From TrEMBL:
Enzyme class: ligase
Origin organism lineage: Bacteria, Pseudomonadati, Bacteroidota, Flavobacteriia, Flavobacteriales
HAMAP family found in the cross-reference section: Ala_tRNA_synth_B
GO molecular function: alanine-tRNA ligase activity
Cofactor descriptive note: Binds 1 zinc ion per subunit.
Family: Belongs to the class-II aminoacyl-tRNA synthetase family.
Sorted UniProt keywords: Aminoacyl-tRNA synthetase, ATP-binding, Coiled coil, Cytoplasm, Ligase, Metal-binding, Nucleotide-binding, Protein biosynthesis, RNA-binding, tRNA-binding, Zinc
Protein name (Swiss-Prot/TrEMBL): Alanine--tRNA ligase
Catalytic activities: tRNA(Ala) + L-alanine + ATP = L-alanyl-tRNA(Ala) + AMP + diphosphate
Entry EC number(s): 6.1.1.7
Keyword hit for Protein biosynthesis: yes
Written domain comment of the UniProt record: Consists of three domains; the N-terminal catalytic domain, the editing domain and the C-terminal C-Ala domain. The editing domain removes incorrectly charged amino acids, while the C-Ala domain, along with tRNA(Ala), serves as a bridge to cooperatively bring together the editing and aminoacylation centers thus stimulating deacylation of misacylated tRNAs.
Record-linked PROSITE patterns: AA_TRNA_LIGASE_II_ALA (PS50860)
InterPro entries recorded: aa-tRNA-synth_II/BPL/LPL, Ala-tRNA-lgiase_IIc, Ala-tRNA-ligase_IIc_anticod-bd, Ala-tRNA-synth_IIc_core, Ala-tRNA-synth_IIc_N, Ala-tRNA_ligase, Ala_tRNA_ligase_euk/bac, DHHA1_dom
Length: 870
């Protein structure tokens, strides 16, 4: 059975059991501070489990793009080495939100596997939670009794907390689970050891395919468990593993999910899969990481230096490095595989097709730059080796290579061992640990439990229409971070404060208590469906009715910048073409930043046109047409622009100004006239094929023009002119150039005179023509003169000192013959004498200079130099 068919059957099986099929959420998570990437199908439903939100159907089914490379679930180091863990994989799931529980979940899982997919019952094992004393939890007898009806009791195994109690993270929904394992070993192997012994023992042919989680608890900040308001089912089946079983393969990589990519890798790199262990690992790593990175970029996450971007960069670099070392690929090649991946998966994941160009470009550029880094790293490592006195390279040096140059540690170890050197692994681990500790301390945030004042799960946002309103605090909690210290988070029954999102910063403002006390709201953010207000101190009376007031000026300017961003987007598409797509944005009261796909620099001429386009829309005074509740599909049909990697509900909000129409949750001006004026301030590149524009509007633009005009007035004043500064400046420049020329020729004449004087004044010391003195000549003229003098003598040793703008300069010349004969070195002389002028320098053995910041030390340097020839 083809993988496409396998996926389809899963979804339609549960559709027939009254589940609604929903799309995969994006793999990159944007509004949950506890999670960077989706690591399980349940993430997007977290709020339903916690009871913060209600699903439209209590039964759902889907296939979810997951990435397990950071945090609680991290399989990165396994990937490629084994045959059944991936970084990015699809998790098939069925969900019950307070609807059915263990009985149906087990019954249907069994029915699907054995009757629809027709998996031989004799290869299946299941596990149930055995209980845990510390948590005060008993064995899951209920699950055991249900399983008994389907499978012989000797195939129902006990599982411990590690394997059979599922948790999403340090906090959050959790519960006991039942796993289904397959034993795909040969009959011969099975005769030797029973499969029972191998379940959950990391055996590559006895593996878990499906996990049925029975969500019953919430793990709190103090790590205690509380019962959830209702019981839920959350199941996750690894799609690639299921394909392996159904296609009778021993490895996920031998299924049709991977074989087309592997064939393409073989062709491009001229290698063969299945012959040699190292080559095989490299090919699996590349095939796997290609998927993770491509899906991440399609979701809008570009490789970068921090956060999620850095994780993606590291995955890609791991693939590049395996190709470099084991497939001998010294040029970019991974980007060439995107085509095959796209062909294979675009039916289920259309984003791969629409984002293909940018995925290829970004990967190619990353490959280029990392291959350069590898090259430099190899040279540095050569240096380290040749300077090392022992056969063991210190962990500190290796860490430096790793940390500063991104040079992978396993590559360092490999190269060292090839050259007969050892790496001080322990020392390296120490350094790594120290660094981790430093960054953990810097970023750790401790989150307390919520104190609930009022039970209320519908916190309404009223900030599109109101900038102040009466509110009550429904719950609050304390958070502590190294950076900000102690803070509190407040949730209201309703709020006018816009939470950071869609690129727009969160609102600031204050709460006013009935007695006039004011509590400042420093920021507003979204956490899943909650709108969280940040304050430094709690108000005295938490139960009061407060007036919540948004800072109007800052909101007005932010709104102007947000609306201007939409017009900019439209302007770019109109001037540069419709290939322009938004890749990121940041809108604050001070300015806006807009990243978009485009392959060349935007010329000054084009920028002018875009700016003019936006200002024309502003002058047209287009009114805001807003629709807060329109079906997604209808909005798209009407021409609204949606963003990739953004999660939209069934109904969306559209923002329209004239021809510009976008899906957007941000705050906007009522009329484009309120933007006042739009100015582009900056254009640059952020990644291959992605450009960035920064711009200002409203008060920011006013301030900009005021500053310009002030600066202009100052220029006129300084130039003592009333009207034409350009003319004055041009004539000053011409005058300046003429003066420079004149000085140069005067210096030359002066040098000529000096040279004569010097020649006559040279001392004879131990057969050396010597002088040391202070000279008032610019550097270029001095150097010319010294070399001319050097041409006349074969035994010259001179040191000149000069002073310019409070800085000292030493110039030393020693005839080449003397250098050889007397073992003198001008570089060494200036380095040593440099200490008197508090500076340093160097050069060649016959000519060197040193600069310093202490001219007062010149006499001493001049005096000391003679000792070199005495
Ligand atoms: P394992 O012990 O094999 O790592 P797990 O206990 O981490 O699995 P769950 O968190 O229960 O797995 O995830 C549910 C299902 O997702 C698993 O039964 C498995 O089929 C699949 N799965 C988990 N991790 C991966 C991975 N890294 N690559 C591919 N499939 C995976
Ligand atoms: Mg795992």
């Amino acid at each position: 059975m083809q993988s496409q068919e396998i996926r389809k059957q899963f979804l339609s099986f549960f559709e027939n059991k009254k589940h609604t099929i929903v799309p995969s959420a994006p793999m990159v998570i944007k509004d949950d501070p506890t999670l960077m990437f989706t690591n399980a199908g349940m993430n997007q439903f977290k709020e339903f489990f916690l009871g913060n939100k209600k699903p439209k159907n209590t039964r759902l089914t889907d296939t979810q793009k997951c990435l397990r490379v950071s945090g609680k679930h991290n399989d990165l180091e396994e990937v490629g080495k084994d045959t059944y863990h991936h970084t990015m994989f699809e998790m098939l799931g069925n969900w019950s939100f307070g609807d059915y529980f263990k009985k149906e979940a087990i019954q249907w899982a069994w029915e699907l596997l054995t009757e629809v997919y027709k998996i031989d019952k004799e290869i299946l094992y299941v596990t149930v939670f055995e209980g845990d004393d510390k948590e005060g939890l008993g064995k899951d007898i209920e699950a055991y009794d249900i399983w008994k009806q389907y499978i012989s009791e000797d195939r129902i195994l006990n599982g411990n907390k590690k394997d059979n109690f599922w948790e999403m993270g340090e906090q959050g929904p959790c519960g006991p689970c039942s796993e289904i394992h397959v034993d795909i070993r040969s009959a011969e192997e099975k005769a030797k050891v029973s499969g029972k012994e191998l379940v959950n023992q990391d055996h590559p042919e006895v593996i878990e395919v499906w996990n049925l989680v029975f969500m019953q608890f919430n793990r709190k900040a103090d790590s205690s468990l509380e019962e959830l308001p209702a019981q839920h089912v959350d199941t996750g089946m690894g799609f690639e593993r299921l394909c392996m079983v159904l296609q009778g393969k021993k490895s996920n990589y031998d299924t049709d999910v991977f074989t087309p990519i592997i064939r393409e890798i073989e062709t491009i790199t001229n290698s063969k899969y299945g012959k040699d262990e190292n080559t095989d690992i490299a090919i699996r790593v590349i095939a796997d990481h290609l998927r993770a990175v491509s899906f991440a970029i399609a979701d809008g996450q570009l490789p970068g230096n921090t956060g999620a971007g850095y994780v993606i960069r590291r995955i890609l670099r791991r693939a590049i490095r395996y190709g470099f070392t084991f497939l001998n690929e010294k040029d970019p090649f991974i980007y060439k595989l995107v085509d095959t991946l796209e062909n294979q998966m675009h039916d289920t994941f259309p984003e791969l097709r629409s984002q293909k160009g940018i995925i290829e470009n970004v990967i190619k550029e990353e490959e280029h730059s990392f291959l350069r880094t590898l090259d430099q790293g190899l040279q540095l490592l050569d240096n380290v080796i040749s300077n090392s006195k022992s056969k063991i390279i210190s962990g500190k040096k290796a860490f430096e290579l790793y940390d500063t140059y991104g040079f992978p540690i396993d590559l360092t170890a490999l190269i060292l061992s090839e050259k007969g050197y050892d790496l001080d692994t322990e020392g390296f681990e120490n350094e790594l640990q120290k660094q981790k500790e430093r960054s953990r301390k810097a970023t750790k945030i401790e989150t307390g439990d919520w104190h609930v004042l009022i039970e209320d799960d519908e916190e309404e946002f009223v900030g599109y229409d109101m900038l102040h309103t009466k509110v009550k605090i429904t719950r609050y909690r304390k958070i502590t971070s190294k950076k900000e210290g102690e803070m509190y988070q407040l949730i209201f029954n309703l709020t006018p404060f816009y939470p950071e999102g869609g690129g727009q910063v969160g609102d600031k403002g204050y709460l006013e208590a009935p007695n006039g006390d004011v509590t400042y709201i420093l920021d507003t953010k979204k956490e899943n469906s909650l709108i969280v207000h940040f304050v430094k101190n709690l108000p005295d009376n938490l139960e009061a009715v407060f007036e919540a007031v948004v800072d109007t000026d800052s909101r007005r300017n932010t709104a102007a910048n947000h609306s201007a961003t939409h017009l900019l987007h439209q302007g770019l598409r109109s001037v540069l073409g419709t290939h322009v797509e938004q890749k990121g944005s940041m809108v604050s009261e001070d300015y806006l930043r807009f990243d978009f796909s485009h392959f060349t620099k935007v010329s000054a001429e084009e920028l002018k046109q875009v700016e003019e386009f936006v200002n024309a829309r502003i002058r047209e005074q287009l009114p805001l047409e807003e629709n807060r509740n329109i079906p997604y599909q209808q909005a798209i049909n009407e021409g609204a622009v949606a963003l990739f990697g953004e999660k939209y509900g069934d109904t969306v909000r559209t923002i329209k100004f004239g021809e510009s129409m976008e899906l957007c949750g941000g705050t906007h001006v009522k009329n484009t006239g309120d933007i006042w004026h739009f100015v582009i301030t900056y254009e640059s590149a952020v990644a291959a094929g992605v450009r960035r524009i920064e711009a200002i509007s409203a008060d920011g633009a006013k301030q900009y023009f005021e500053n310009q005009s002030e600066a202009y007035d100052k220029v006129l004043e300084v130039l003592k002119t009333k009207n034409d500064p350009v003319k004055v400046i041009t004539s000053l420049q011409e005058e300046n150039a003429a003066l420079k020329k004149e000085i140069e020729s005067l210096q030359k004449a002066k040098a000529k005179g000096l040279k004569k004087e010097l020649r006559n004044g040279l001392e004879e010391v131990n057969g050396v023509k010597f002088t040391a003195q202070k000279i008032d000549l610019d550097q270029g003229a001095l150097k010319d003169m010294v070399f001319e003098l050097g041409n006349e003598f074969k035994n010259l040793f001179v040191l000149f000192a000069s002073e310019n703008n409070g800085k000292a300069l030493l110039t030393c010349y020693i005839s080449k013959e003397l250098v050889a004969e007397k073992d003198l070195n001008a570089g060494k002389v200036v380095r040593e004498l440099g200490k008197y002028i508090q500076g340093g320098g160097g050069g060649q053995p016959f000519f060197a200079t040193a600069g310093g910041k202490n001219p007062a030390g010149i006499p001493e340097a001049l005096e000391k130099v003679k000792s070199y020839i005495l």
